[in-house]
Specification:
The chain is α/β, with parallel strands linked by helices. The chain folds into three domains: 89 residues, 434 Repressor (Amino-terminal Domain) (Orthogonal Bundle); 128 residues, Aspartate Aminotransferase, domain 2, CATH 3.40.640; 122 residues, Aspartate Aminotransferase, domain 1. 42% of the residues lie in helices and 14% in strands. The chain has 14 helices and twelve strands. The strands form three sheets. The chain has a seven-stranded mixed beta sheet with strand order 2-8-7-6-5-3-4, with helices on both faces. The protein has a three-stranded antiparallel beta sheet with strand order 9-10-12. Strands 1-11 form a two-stranded parallel ribbon. The longest helix has 22 residues. The chain starts with a strand and ends with a helix.
């Protein structure tokens, strides 16, 4: 039996999502065609867009389907790329999909400010305000950090940016926040928001992008005029239907699931500390599905493999790091032994106490067998 504790990396496909995909496969017609079954495909596509708009609290016309969070992040950064120069304001703990794009813009002459975080993993609103400049053209601040679970003050920062200069384009990467906490784009005030389907129980390869009506962001892809001319290419009706189904499920039980995961996280902290007193909590975050911890002095990659061999699956940080040191944990200023032993437990709809118990048992075995050899 396996115990999956890496939901922040990806989530299992929900039964409702898989069924929606199978149903959509039968209606294989191109939604841009004009005969009856194609019009039915277009109607199903519109219904999926309506579902996404309801979940985000926006208009249907402000929702665009993408291949995932990385595409949405890169599309938002294109706002700066439309200009020849200027200042970009972001944080030191963004996902690589933002940081790598910002780095590319810096190589083209843009100046970038990376806001630090405090010891709890939050940016300071006063630091954000102080960093705004006359030539600031773009701000990108993630909603929930994928390794710490910390919620960043996006609404407050966006309000400050717009008060400073209403033409500043404000984007938030909401991949880890979507369906983990209530999101209303009007309350956030942002111009753009990106999200990913495979984090919420849809298959990989689909996501959505919110773009505020009236924004002057250029199309991502040119071609046949799909997605209101903003992202050409025949829509993946199968993946989009699967995403909408996952969103309907996630919206229905959002509050109940938040409460359940909060209790499970409490149990995890108690159970793991009892089993391995040497374990230290890095962050319990502000959302209940992410728990960052460390075994100071031990190598996390060795521990992850040891646990994996025993059917307990978690990570040493973001899956996108592929074993490299986490820039997020480093941004906290943690001691090197803490950085070396960092682990991330992330929970989801299928998580239960039995998974935490299995992790505790495997860590207890690691303590007896593995840890002495690593001392």
């Amino acid at each position: 039996m396996t115990h999956y504790l890496d939901y922040a990396a990806t989530a299992p496909v929900l039964p409702e999502s898989a069924q929606a995909a199978r149903d959509a496969l039968d209606n294989f017609y191109n939604p841009s065609s004009q005969y009856p079954p194609a019009r039915a495909a277009a109607a199903a596509l519109a219904e999926s867009r309506r579902t996404m708009a309801a979940a985000l609290g926006c208009q249907m016309e402000e929702v665009f389907f993408t291949s995932g969070g990385t595409e949405g992040d890169n599309w938002a950064l294109a706002w700066a790329a439309q200009r020849k120069r200027g200042h970009i304001l972001t944080t030191a703990i963004e996902h690589p999909a933002v940081l790598e794009g910002v780095k590319a813009l810096a190589q083209k002459g843009f100046e970038v400010t990376y806001l630090p975080v405090d010891s709890s993993g939050h940016i300071r609103v006063e630091d954000f305000q102080a960093a705004l400049r006359e030539d600031t053209v773009l701000c990108s601040v993630m909603l929930v950090n994928n390794e710490l679970g910390t919620v960043q003050p996006v609404a407050r920062c966006c309000a400050l940016a717009k008060a400073h200069n209403r033409d500043i384009f404000f984007h938030t990467d909401a991949v880890q926040g979507f369906l983990k906490l209530p999101i209303r784009v009007r309350d956030l005030g942002v111009d753009a928001l990106s999200l990913s389907g495979h984090k919420v129980g849809a298959p990989k390869g689909v996501g959505a992008f919110y773009l505020r009506a009236g924004s002057r962001l250029k199309p991502l892809l040119l071609g046949g005029g799909q997605e209101s001319g903003m992202r050409a290419g025949t829509e993946s009706t199968v993946l989009i239907a699967a995403l909408a189904a996952a969103v309907r499920r996630g919206t229905e039980d959002l509050e109940a699931e938040r409460g359940r995961l909060a209790q499970l996280q409490d149990y995890a902290v108690r159970r793991l500390k009892e089993t391995v007193p040497e374990l230290e909590i890095i962050s319990r975050g502000d959302v209940p599905h992410i728990l960052a911890m460390t075994l100071p002095g031990y190598r996390s990659e060795v521990v992850v493999r040891f646990l994996g061999d025993r059917g307990v699956y978690l990570s040493s940080g973001s899956a996108c790091h592929k074993g490299k040191p986490s820039h997020v944990y480093a941004a906290l200023g943690l001691p090197k032994p803490w950085l070396a032993g960092a682990l991330r437990v992330s929970l989801g709809k299928g998580s239960g106490r039995e998974d935490i118990d299995a992790l505790a048992k495997a860590l207890e075995e690691a303590k007896a067998v593995l840890f002495p050899s690593m001392s």
